[in-house]
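Pilot study result, target chain (330 residues):
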Amino acid sequence: MQKEWSSFKITLILYFVVLILPFSFYFVYTSFKTMQHDTKIVRQSSWITGAMEHLTVKYTNQNDQQMIGRIDKTLHDISLWVTENSNSELYIGGQTLSKDFSKVDSCWTAYKESFSKQNDTDIRQHSLQCYALTDNMAIIIEKMVYLKQNKIINIFYLSLTIAMILILLIIYMVRAYIHMQMKKHAIHDHETKLFNKKYFLSQLKTSCARSVRYKYPLSILSISIDDFGKGTERYDEKTKEHILGMLGGLITSMTRTSDVACRYDEDHFSILLPDTEEENALILEKRIREVFEKHDFMAKPELKFKFSTVPFNYEETPEAFVTRTEGLLK
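Predicted structure:
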């Protein structure tokens, strides 16, 4: 027999569902941090292009040393990003991102050497070359970042969808399991509001044991519906539900609180009558029979019932008692 889950396990699963959300938020946080950093690199690479263009036009400006320092720092920041993304599958250039950056870095080194020598021809030549290389690198980085961010967004939507499906699936599974356990451990029949067979059999064992020990009388009144849902006299589901509801209400109204009235199976009802002699049980049978015959169940064809009342034999087992009762209805 399969073991039932403990409340601790069910709670643990629900906690797992709740913990999925922080992981999703962490993924969103890291994704936006990455996009923020990549956007900064795009801005820096575009700035270097503009700076190179500025040096090409005004290479004798007195602020060139300050500009050169800013370019050195910016190139250093870009070099770190290039190292992280050198093997990226999103590269759209002709060689590799590392080689593109190396060309820019070599050209920039040559420019600074010519600038220190105050060679105007070399300065202009290297500045134009650096401008072309940095412009090409900036375009490549911008395209790579665009593709990378688009990929991150797609992964985000995909992971969000998977997380939502997983959460809904776990919630559904837990709900279905709880519903199954509630149904398994229920003691009432849903359609008739009477006790179910499982509860009836458990009460039967207790009542038989008490009857044997104290020599108390015990009886069972059984009722079955002829051809209920069989053959040509079959009733549709709505009619059957209506009939069962009325039968449950009638039986409840005519039994004592101490009696155990149950729906034993689809068309069979059993009433356990503690402290009841066969004579008194037959009186109850007669009352129920008369009520059923007079009651309009609004069903065509009209319902026909079989009744049997059996007293408990102190020498028999509860199982034998039930079997003997069922045999009289056939």
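One observation from the pilot: The CA atoms of residues 75 and 120 lie 23 Å apart. A full batch analysis is planned for the follow-on phase.
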